[in-house]
């Protein structure tokens, strides 16, 4: 029983990063931009927040956890939004190939994270590990009272605020896409920017806004990882391929943020399942780690078989838009 | 009497790189009139209208709306001036409902109140006599329903000036009539309507005045009452054109192709041909009519051996008396029997010709297997290319020019010319004149007629019913993959064919949707 509880808890905490990444990517893809730079942007977001918290804690004798939290949150969102801006300028204004730009951004972002992660470790004294305990404690604060309830408290109320925020954000995004005028316009752009343009929608502005805010949301996934999951430290390449899982999750969720919620917990569970399955060798462990991708492939096959129009990717995904093209 | 024009253009010029699409065009639309803009493909009609709707920005010239000079920088500006454009290729989002498409991009309450929108739309459709379900998804709609959505969309935005780009190109005769009724209602309500077209009979039937463009230049405007089909064609083409097709009585008719109960599925597993049966005879032109995607392509491809046949058989009766079952044969073997498919797909170069290769090489695509030498023989194909250029008046700098540098009409002449050169016994063509100017169209019609007189069985898929009626001997009507009937082209009418094309069958719209994609 307690093993199952730990498994579920860990599955959820694994899923949060992926959920932020997927939510950000869904917003981005709804505008027709396939931002494969999301994994890199999540690295950038994570390291930026950590660095901000580190310098804040270093600069004052008695760091305040709440101020550290605000600073790191803000810096993370700015840094990842900057990543989104780079992508937007290149693909929207200069109409560069989206895949190439995205992959380059991911390579850049991972390097950016590891470089500065190593640098601040040096600044911290060179022992290899840095720690922003005070700020991290704010991220890790559980809900007082409710988290004390046995089992239910552990399962539902034992997480930091970013976990709840990720779920609420996904629900809000679903509402935005489905029920608001701006959401309708955004979906239209992803389907057919030409038609949206003819309807009087400013295509470039929407694409920029969606891509940049999508990147900012995804960056929170990186921040969650360094602050709540790792407890305010950096581990080179520690974030692993969670960014790619986030992109796979977008497909699994059929571009619907609400599906991404349960999908992220499923992915989180599959991602760590190998730890809980007894009797796995190193080789079979690796096979086990493939499960999230296998599930994605199965979903891809099923959804293309069903051939339902609403479940298809945004029709203009991956294509640049130029009004006067003939 | 000075009348304020709803729209007035003065010396408007638009260039695309080196190409001048509109060369200092002047033109005006009065309030409450229907104006036709007439011109051949490439005469700059659509470019001109796109400048009014904010898709393109003019390089030079002035635009006046209701007497005031304006700048139209984007579709938004255009809406604000009360201009609504219904594009030839509908600008609709497939996965959204009609209502969602209609309110797309509009200002208003932040959250969507669809019930209210539906009510407003229903009120509007009742007023002008449209038939529209606001909550229907676009991908479930027929072409004419989609067009209705487009028109309601601009009316919902309060447009006073409507521009329709080739609105009848995809409609059946019945749907066209309904559209014209709606347009006349709008004119009565005081709206100005511009209709872009190249169909003369529609111009004469509907419009008050006609403006003619030729090769990007403004030629003139005439009152429809004073115009005739001949005078308008002359303005359009710049010279007198004989508009009659010389149809001879079929002679020496022998059965060539017999299709028996052919059923085919497309890639998505949907039946695109259902138990299709017919016969084609030598010395006649068999026309095939139907709404786009009713199985025309599959029918021809089944004969040519390019389509997997689920059930049924196709027989070929050769002139020497032998009979072959071609439904079991490979495409190359069928070609050996001199059954030729000259398919002209939407992008013309997609099938049949290779754009970056020159005329000679494109001739060789058909003949490279002939001869026994290691090296290819370029002489014969070159002679063939030269003779096609000469015989069909292909305008090209030489036979070494890559085909994609030729204009659409010339590409089509090369393609059809090559197929004819090998003396086929069965010649199948699909949309042979799509995108061609009047002169080239008639060259192609005459070519087909020549083949018929030579005793070839010609099968021609067409989209213009008027032309099919003039050109063919018999017309086979397809209705969502079924053969609805075969009519005598000399006796039937456009309305009869139109009814057979659309007469209700379950799943008709759905099918058309899929293959239209």
Automatic annotation (TrEMBL), chain A:
<keyword id="KW-1133">Transmembrane helix</keyword>
<dbReference type="Pfam" id="PF02653">
    <property type="entry name" value="BPD_transp_2"/>
</dbReference>
<protein>
    <submittedName>
        <fullName>Nucleoside ABC transporter membrane protein</fullName>
    </submittedName>
</protein>
<keyword id="KW-1003">Cell membrane</keyword>
<dbReference type="GO" id="GO:0005886">
    <property type="term" value="C:plasma membrane"/>
</dbReference>
<dbReference type="GO" id="GO:0022857">
    <property type="term" value="F:transmembrane transporter activity"/>
</dbReference>
<feature type="transmembrane region" description="Helical">
    <location>
        <begin position="156"/>
        <end position="177"/>
    </location>
</feature>
<keyword id="KW-0812">Transmembrane</keyword>
<dbReference type="InterPro" id="IPR001851">
    <property type="entry name" value="ABC_transp_permease"/>
</dbReference>
<feature type="transmembrane region" description="Helical">
    <location>
        <begin position="37"/>
        <end position="56"/>
    </location>
</feature>
<feature type="transmembrane region" description="Helical">
    <location>
        <begin position="208"/>
        <end position="227"/>
    </location>
</feature>
<feature type="transmembrane region" description="Helical">
    <location>
        <begin position="68"/>
        <end position="90"/>
    </location>
</feature>
<keyword id="KW-0472">Membrane</keyword>
<feature type="transmembrane region" description="Helical">
    <location>
        <begin position="260"/>
        <end position="277"/>
    </location>
</feature>
From TrEMBL, chain B:
<dbReference type="GO" id="GO:0005886">
    <property type="term" value="C:plasma membrane"/>
</dbReference>
<dbReference type="GO" id="GO:0016887">
    <property type="term" value="F:ATP hydrolysis activity"/>
</dbReference>
<feature type="domain" description="ABC transporter">
    <location>
        <begin position="257"/>
        <end position="505"/>
    </location>
</feature>
<keyword id="KW-0677">Repeat</keyword>
<dbReference type="InterPro" id="IPR027417">
    <property type="entry name" value="P-loop_NTPase"/>
</dbReference>
<keyword id="KW-0067">ATP-binding</keyword>
<feature type="domain" description="ABC transporter">
    <location>
        <begin position="7"/>
        <end position="240"/>
    </location>
</feature>
<keyword id="KW-0472">Membrane</keyword>
<dbReference type="InterPro" id="IPR003439">
    <property type="entry name" value="ABC_transporter-like_ATP-bd"/>
</dbReference>
<keyword id="KW-0762">Sugar transport</keyword>
<dbReference type="InterPro" id="IPR003593">
    <property type="entry name" value="AAA+_ATPase"/>
</dbReference>
<keyword id="KW-0547">Nucleotide-binding</keyword>
<dbReference type="Pfam" id="PF00005">
    <property type="entry name" value="ABC_tran"/>
</dbReference>
<protein>
    <submittedName>
        <fullName>Simple sugar transport system ATP-binding protein</fullName>
    </submittedName>
</protein>
<dbReference type="GO" id="GO:0005524">
    <property type="term" value="F:ATP binding"/>
</dbReference>
<keyword id="KW-1278">Translocase</keyword>
<keyword id="KW-1003">Cell membrane</keyword>
<keyword id="KW-0813">Transport</keyword>
<dbReference type="InterPro" id="IPR050107">
    <property type="entry name" value="ABC_carbohydrate_import_ATPase"/>
</dbReference>
């Amino acid at each position: 029983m307690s093993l199952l509880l730990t498994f579920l808890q860990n599955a959820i905490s694994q899923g949060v990063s992926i959920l932020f990444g997927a939510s950000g990517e869904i917003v981005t893809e709804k505008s027709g931009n396939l931002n494969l730079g999301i994994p890199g942007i999540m690295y950038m977001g994570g390291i930026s927040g950590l660095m901000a918290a580190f310098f804040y804690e270093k600069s004052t004798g008695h760091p305040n956890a709440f101020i550290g939290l605000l600073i790191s949150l803000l810096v993370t969102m700015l840094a990842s939004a900057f990543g989104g801006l780079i992508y937007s300028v290149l693909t929207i204004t200069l109409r560069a190939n989206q895949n190439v730009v995205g992959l380059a951004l991911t390579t850049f972002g991972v390097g950016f994270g590891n470089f500065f992660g190593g640098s601040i470790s040096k600044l911290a004294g060179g022992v290899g590990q840095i720690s922003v305990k005070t700020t991290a404690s704010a991220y890790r604060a559980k809900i007082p009272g409710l988290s004390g309830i046995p089992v239910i408290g552990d399962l539902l109320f034992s997480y930091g605020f970013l976990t709840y925020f990720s779920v609420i954000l996904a629900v809000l995004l679903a509402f935005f896409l489905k029920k608001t005028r701006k959401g309708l316009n955004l979906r239209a752009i992803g389907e057919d920017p030409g038609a949206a343009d003819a309807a009087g929608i400013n295509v470039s502005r929407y694409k920029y806004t969606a891509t940049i805010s999508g990147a900012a949301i995804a960056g929170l996934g990186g921040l969650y990882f360094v602050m709540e999951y790792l407890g305010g430290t950096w581990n080179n390449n520690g974030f692993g391929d969670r960014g790619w899982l986030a992109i796979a999750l977008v497909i699994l969720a059929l571009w619907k943020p609400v599906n991404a919620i349960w999908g992220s917990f499923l992915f989180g569970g599959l991602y760590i399942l190998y730890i809980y399955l007894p009797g796995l060798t190193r080789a079979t462990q690796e096979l086990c780690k493939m499960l999230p991708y296998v599930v994605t492939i199965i979903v891809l096959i099923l959804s293309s078989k069903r051939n339902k129009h609403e479940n298809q990717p945004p029709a203009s995904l991956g294509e640049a838009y130029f009004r006067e093209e003939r | 009497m000075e009348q304020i024009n709803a729209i007035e253009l003065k010396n408007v010029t638009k260039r695309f790189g080196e190409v001048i699409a509109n060369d200092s065009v002047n033109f005006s639309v009065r309030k409450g009139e229907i104006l036709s803009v007439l011109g051949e493909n490439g005469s700059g009609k659509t470019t001109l209208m796109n400048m009014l709707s904010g898709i393109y920005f003019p390089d030079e010239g002035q635009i006046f709306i209701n007497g005031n000079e304006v700048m139209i920088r984007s579709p938004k500006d255009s809406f604000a001036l009360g201009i609504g454009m219904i594009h030839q290729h509908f600008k609709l989002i497939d996965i959204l409902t009609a209502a969602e498409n209609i309110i797309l991009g509009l200002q208003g309450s932040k959250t969507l109140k669809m019930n209210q929108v539906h009510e407003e739309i229903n009120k509007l459709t009742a007023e002008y006599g449209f038939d529209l379900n606001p909550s229907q998804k676009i991908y479930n709609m027929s072409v004419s329903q989609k067009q209705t959505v487009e028109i309601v969309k601009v009316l919902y935005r309060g447009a006073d000036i409507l521009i329709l780009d080739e609105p009848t190109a995809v409609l059946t005769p019945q749907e066209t009539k309904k559209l014209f009724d709606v347009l006349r209602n709008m004119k009565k309500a005081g709206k100005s309507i511009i209709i872009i077209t190249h169909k003369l009979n529609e111009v004469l039937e509907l419009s008050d005045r006609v403006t003619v463009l030729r090769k990007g230049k403004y030629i003139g405007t005439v009152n429809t009452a004073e115009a005739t089909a001949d005078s308008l064609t002359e303005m359009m083409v710049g010279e007198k054109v004989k508009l009659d097709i010389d149809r001879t009585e079929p002679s020496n008719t022998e059965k060539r192709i017999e299709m028996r109960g052919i059923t085919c599925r497309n890639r998505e597993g949907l039946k695109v041909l259902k138990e299709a049966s017919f016969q084609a005879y030598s010395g006649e032109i068999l026309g095939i009519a139907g709404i786009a995607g009713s199985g025309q392509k599959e029918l021809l491809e089944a004969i040519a051996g390019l389509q997997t046949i689920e059930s049924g058989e196709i027989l070929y009766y050769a002139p020497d008396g032998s009979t072959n079952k071609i439904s079991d044969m490979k495409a190359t073997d069928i070609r050996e029997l001199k059954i030729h498919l000259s398919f002209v797909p939407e992008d013309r170069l997609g099938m049949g010709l290779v754009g970056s290769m020159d005329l000679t090489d494109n001739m060789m695509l058909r003949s490279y297997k002939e001869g026994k030498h290691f090296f290819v023989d370029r002489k014969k194909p070159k002679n063939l290319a030269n003779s096609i250029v000469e015989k069909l008046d292909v305008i090209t700098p030489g036979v070494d020019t890559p085909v994609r540098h030729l204009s659409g009409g010339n590409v089509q002449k090369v393609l059809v010319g090559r197929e004819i050169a090998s003396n086929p016994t069965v010649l199948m063509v699909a949309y042979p004149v799509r995108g061609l100017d009047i002169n080239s169209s008639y060259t192609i019609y005459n070519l087909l007629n020549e083949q018929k007189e030579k005793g070839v069985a010609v099968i021609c898929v067409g989209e213009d019913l008027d032309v099919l009626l003039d050109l063919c001997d018999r017309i086979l009507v397809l209705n969502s993959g079924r053969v609805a009937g075969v009519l005598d082209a000399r006796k039937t009418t456009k309305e009869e064919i139109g009814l057979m094309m659309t007469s209700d069958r379950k799943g008709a719209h759905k099918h058309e949707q899929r293959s239209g994609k």
